[in-house]
Amino acid sequence: MNARLRFSIFIVGLGLITAFIPYKQNKPNQLKPAGLLEKSMDNQYLISVDKVARSVVDEDSTILIIDLRTPEEYKNFNIPGSINIPYNKLLDKDFEGYLDQKKIKNIFYSNGDIISTQAWTLCTGMGYQNNYIMQGGLNEWYKTVMNSNYSGDRITARENALFETRFKARKIFTEMNSLPDSLKLKFIETKRKNEKKLDGGCG
Amino acid sequence: MGPLLPLIEAPLWANLLAAFIIGIAFGFALEQAGFSSSRKLAGMFYGYDTTVLKVFFSAAIFALLGSLIMNYFGLIDLNLVYINEYYVGASIVGGIIMGAGFIMGGFCPGTGISALAIGKIDALFYLIGGFVGAFLFAETYPFFAEFATSGYKGPTKINDWLGLSPGVFALILIIAAVGMFWLAELAEKKFPKPEITNEI
């Protein structure tokens, strides 16, 4: 048997083997259950509505507020500057670029805490970083930011600053959400963001 | 380090060192295989020397087999492998220009550098031409921008397009490659140019 024939048989044989081995995707970043448990034990991932309100007022660009409710609910009203990733589309490729990144804080919110906590667990388990939850969700936002009034005789400087932020956030929230739909939609359309790009190629 | 999972957290210097060593090995192998000779490369077009096909295809199928097998054993993350993005029109036009340049100049960009490294003057002018072309392209890019970015298909893989598993596609490609190797050797016998092949 000459070398050419031997080489051909060898390489086709290897090919036959690979044709039968199953293809699997290695996800090296995925957290093991123990790691996830540990991460969920400390409450570092909870962010109060007051902090979110301050970020809205400051137009903080180091955070991204993510609304997990349905698109209809989102269109109705949302926290200014937030984007909409409906919970049932959380694993959609279109949103991977927003979720799988290392630069900014992603703050999830929904009406209460349940959906945002589930989203936090999913994302953290997949190895995505910088996931946070707005504690209490929109219910807490309404209670604290939209409807709280200061009632007391004297106000401390700290409380004054807190309420000023709340009032400002309330104003922005009301203004943005009372825009006509045609204008509002311009702001809130979540564009597809490609998954993180890799550098490379050859010449 | 790249898609190799055990080394993924390797420090930057180790990555650069590995790239340097692989680069040297690549250039050395390229030169040793005779790829710094434009007549050998052009032989692919005329059929008297098909080393290019054999070398590149065997490199491709071995890399393919290696990556699939290593992926199976969890040693590699194929998501970290760069996949060229596919622009339909630009790929066709670019392929034609590249092919025409290849057969006229006798080098592809990589082998041109390899040939310049051993002091070939034609490679020097070939590379100057390449840089001038790249410069002109960059300067006139706004005129082509619309065409260059049309027909965007994203990073597409043939096996996804055909709906095959990567392993089955690898087998098909290997059979095709082996078939081509035999055909190529037949062509070498049919269009011999001993005055060139003996010399290089």
Account of the 3D structure:
The complex is a heterodimer of chains A (203) and B (200). Chain A is an alpha/beta fold. Chain A has a single domain, classed as Oxidized Rhodanese, domain 1 (3-Layer(aba) Sandwich). In chain A, 50% of the residues lie in helices and 9% in strands. A 5-stranded parallel beta sheet of chain A has the order 1-5-4-2-3. In chain A, strand 4 (105-109), helix 6 (114-125) and strand 5 form a beta-alpha-beta unit. In chain A, helix 3 packs across helix 8. Chain A starts with a helix and ends in a 15-residue tail after the last helix. The relative contact order of chain A is 0.15. Chain B is mainly alpha-helical and 200 residues long. Chain B has 2 domains: 1-81 and 166-200, no CATH class; 84-156, no CATH class. Chain B is 70% helix and 2% strand. A two-stranded antiparallel ribbon of chain B has the order 1-2. In chain B, helix 2 crosses helix 4. The relative contact order of chain B is 0.15. The chains are: A alpha/beta (203), B mainly alpha (200). Chain A binds chain B through residues 4, 8, 11-12, 14-16, 18-28, 198-201, 203, and chain B through 5, 8, 58, 61, 65, 68-69, 71-72, 74, 76-80, 82, 84, 109-110, 165-168, 170-171, 173-175, 177-178, 181-182, 185.
Low-pLDDT runs of 5+ residues of chain B are none
Q: Assign a percent range to the helix content of chain A.
A: 40-55%
For the residues shown, what is the average pLDDT of chain A?
84
Radius of gyration of chain B: 19 Å
Summarize the amount of helix of chain B as a percent range. Answer: over 70%
**Structural class of the helix and strand makeup of chain A?**
alpha/beta
Major beta sheet summary of chain A = 5 strands, parallel
- CATH fourth-tier homologous superfamily of chain A: Rhodanese-like domain
SS field, number of helical segments of chain A: 9
**What is the strand tally of chain A?**
5
Radius of gyration of chain A: 24 Å
Any idea how many domains of chain B? 2
